[in-house]
Amino acid sequence: MIFGNRDDKEKVYLDALKTANTYNLKVLVVMVFLSILALVLDEIGVFATPRTIMLIASFVSVGVFLVPIIIYFVHDKLLKKENPIIETNLLKIIIIVASFLGVTCIIVTLAFHVLLGIGIPMLMAAQYRNNKKLITAVFIASMILVPISVYGTFFFGTIDRNILKIATEDIDKYSTFTQRLELATSKRMLELFLHYVLPRALCVVAMEVLVIGIINRNKLMLEKQGELSEKVQREMQHTSEIQLNIIEDLAAVVETRDCETGEHIARTKQYVNMIANILKKNDKYKDVLDEKTIDQYTEAAPLHDVGKIAISDTILLKPGKLTPEEYEQMKVHTTKGGEMIYKIFKNLKDEAFIKHAHDIALYHHEKWDGTGYPEGIKGEEIPLSARIMAIADVYDALVSKRVYKDAMDPNDAFDILEKDAGSHFDPNIIEIIKEYRKDFVDSVK
User: Fold this and answer.
1) Quick check: is 1 in a domain?
2) pLDDT computed for residue 48 by the predictor
3) Is the pTM of this model over 0.70?
4) How many domains does the chain have?
């Protein structure tokens, strides 16, 4: 998949939606505590709302605010559903609706104490990606909430006589809806509209302008992030193509010098990939061998014998057994290979690949017991990539025909791998791949 395409852009937006949903759930948690705090303050006399009304308003608002939180917790945390609801537009809608209902309940009860609460749902909506329908719906709902908060407070909630002077001086005598209904003359309702509904409505319009600005900024940032990600991925893909071309060219050079080595390169690449994917299933290696690392091992495998380019033809193409002196010269291909990897790929940015390719080229002839070359390191001092490469390299050499030997039966070759576990090869790896013996045997053509 090419990063920066439609799927990847949607992933950016999906991550943004998840972040916004997570943040707004935290806001709802805060609103739950504030609702409880309002009830406590009313109980100690800070507010003057009738106790019954305050109890009902607090419990209803807390219950409404908790709905999205409970849905998320049950769906994603307890049931652990395959498609997390935290990443869906459905939870976004539930959050916005819950915020409106809960805030409405509190504002109607404590209008003048929580005047700024009108803007909470709008600011929560501002966390999301630009959506005209959502913006319009939130704006309309906020405008409707304005008269509800004013007239609702007049009839049901707390009227602060220092602010709402339209009410009579003896407002304390009018504590029930029926009694307040007596105050609801046409003139008073109009005055409430002009002095309280209209100014609040204008504030909501101003908030809406700010919210649209925030949303548009978020949209622009997401688009820029998508463009930047696309640019970065294009560069990474270009680098990867250059890298693969270099690997293919180097492998071709090796193959032109030694046809057997060329075929060996293709087969060992297959074995490295097979072994790495088998190890990935094991608990010890599952966190080390992710897909990217396995791909890097596989891509680097063809470079394990790249140092043979520096070996003379008389040694490289000799049909018989090498003399001790020739063998010492042949061993140099590991150090030469490591040096060549760093020189050839030094300008590429994929440091992890370069490291794996270098380790494979330099250390694939090291042995578990420390008797290998070029450095004689042992055990897990040998990089994992090189330990895997050593198994693939030897197994293919055993089952392949050479001018100086016939091909060995794959089962006999695998027996040698098991026999040399703990001396030549990593015994842990051999123990794991034993269960897949048939796959190795069947892979030999």
Assistant:
1) no
2) 66
3) no
4) 2
